[in-house]
Specification:
449 residues; alpha/beta; 3 domains; 14 helices; globular
Length: 449
């Protein structure tokens, strides 16, 4: 069952997210027991990433109520998840967590891997929540019973989403540096002492902070996203876009600098924040993106080549795109309606969208296939079956290519017809970039908050 579900899950993730990157896999031990610890910002999407993209076979610790859900429970069992009984869950029996710990330790004793969300639940907070001690207790208990030739290692894993609830956003799965778990002597069946548990939990928290984005203010992440977007814009299109690992690291530096600036120069930080907001508003009013303000990219040879390739793709893909919209748009709208109606919290929105899409799109295709079968027979239905999802895929890429072409055309028109306004926006971007650099240099010489 697992072998069948994994490829399907990978396809679902690749469709929902326009761009997915994985970094740091070289640091993951290829053999021996490993505990992956992750931040938890995006519901069931988070474990799906690790299950699909980790270089090792993984068993997750998952909250017990998931196992009682009709479809999700079957998926959890197929992926050999281990139920965790939490105090806040209705009808939970905390006594059963002894079985949970034993099952997790058994996987590690076999040299396998488990994955844990030590915050205890998914959330949309601006920083990590205090970690539960269960991960440290499992790790210390397992390390004490391992043979002398086996070393238990913990690998911190960071999940970074540019816009976690948005369809066709981007996501990064980053593996941090592993560290070994200290082996302390324990009598058979005994729980680890409180002090080593606290120390290991603190070390886990520090390791997770190294692979996640944290901010003291709730709105700081949105501010830094705007700053990073403007700061990364260049005067010409780069040969390759920055990797998501580079984008993540830049946001980490910007957040650190902002926290120092907010502490030492609050008025200056507020002025920069207001300037960023005004600039974004100016771009929105012009229908532009900061990446469009690259004058050197509008040389006639580059423009001609880009226009030719884009128009060729659009013309060739138009028939399939129209069919894809007609077939799939009702299900697409229904997914959005279901997700906003059911999901009450931001960190569950993407999960509901994915689950609704996994149900509604196949139902749409099945209904069409039944109609074709009744109208033209089984051979016609067999011919149409692979076409239905393919047209949807073409329509998706058609819409994205068309949107990029419209944006580039609008920017070119402003450059040709309102050159002074275009260059004014470009100059303002340069000034903001210089101000961010200057503030960062000053902040780097001061202690962090």
């Amino acid at each position: 069952m697992r072998a069948l579900l994994l490829p399907l899950l990978r396809v679902v993730l690749r469709i929902f997210f326009r761009r997915i990157e994985v970094s740091g896999t070289d640091s993951v031990p290829r053999v021996g027991p490993v505990i992956f610890v992750l931040n938890h910002p995006n519901g069931l999407i988070d474990p799906a990433f690790l299950l699909c993209l980790a270089p090792r076979r993984v068993s997750f610790l998952a909250k017990a109520p998931l196992f009682r859900m009709p479809i999700i429970g079957a998926i959890c069992r197929a992926f050999e998840a281990i139920p965790v009984h939490r105090r806040q869950d209705t009808g939970s029996d905390l006594g059963k967590n002894a079985e949970t710990f034993e099952a997790a330790r058994a996987v590690l004793l076999r040299g396998g891997t488990i994955a844990v969300f030590p915050e205890g639940g998914s959330h949309s907070d601006s920083k990590l929540r205090p970690l539960k001690t269960g991960t440290a207790r499992i790790a210390l208990g397992a390390a004490a019973t391992l043979p002398a030739d086996l070393i238990l290692r913990i690998v911190p894993v960071g999940l970074y989403y540019r816009a976690k609830q948005t369809f066709r956003s981007v996501a990064l799965l980053h593996f941090g540096n592993p560290f070994p778990v200290e082996r302390i002597p324990l009598p058979s069946g005994a729980e680890p002492p409180a002090e080593p548990v606290r120390e290991l939990t603190a070390r886990l928290e520090a390791a997770l902070r190294g692979v996640t984005l944290e901010a003291e203010e709730v709105n700081a992440h949105a501010l830094i996203a705007r700053a990073q977007h403007i700061f990364s814009a260049a005067d010409e299109v780069p040969e390759r876009p920055p990797s998501l690992a580079e984008e993540f690291e830049l946001r980490r530096r910007l957040l650190a600098g902002y926290e120092v600036a907010r502490r030492h120069w609050p008025e200056r930080a507020a002025r920069l924040q207001a300037r960023l907001a005004r600039y974004e508003a100016s771009l929105a009013a012009a229908g532009l993106d900061a990446q469009h303000l690259a004058p050197k990219s509008y040389a006639w040879q580059r423009v001609t080549a880009y226009a030719f390739k884009s128009l060729l793709f659009l013309m060739l893909g138009l028939p399939a795109a129209i069919a894809g919209v007609v077939i799939n748009y009702p299900a697409y709208r229904a997914v959005g309606w279901v997700a906003t109606g059911i999901s009450k919290v931001e960190d569950a929105l993407a999960t509901v969208k994915v689950l609704a899409a996994a149900l509604l799109f196949p139902l749409t295709w099945a209904a069409i296939l039944v109609a074709v079968w009744l109208w033209r027979g089984p051979w016609a239905a067999a011919f149409v079956a692979p076409v239905l999802p393919l047209t949807g895929y073409v329509a998706l890429h058609f819409a994205e290519r068309f949107d990029r072409l419209v944006g580039a055309t609008r920017a070119l028109a402003i450059l040709l017809l309102r050159r002074r306004a275009f260059l004014r926006l470009t100059a303002e971007r340069h000034d903001i970039q210089r101000e961010i650099v200057a503030l960062g240099r000053e902040a780097s010489g001061l202690p962090s908050p």
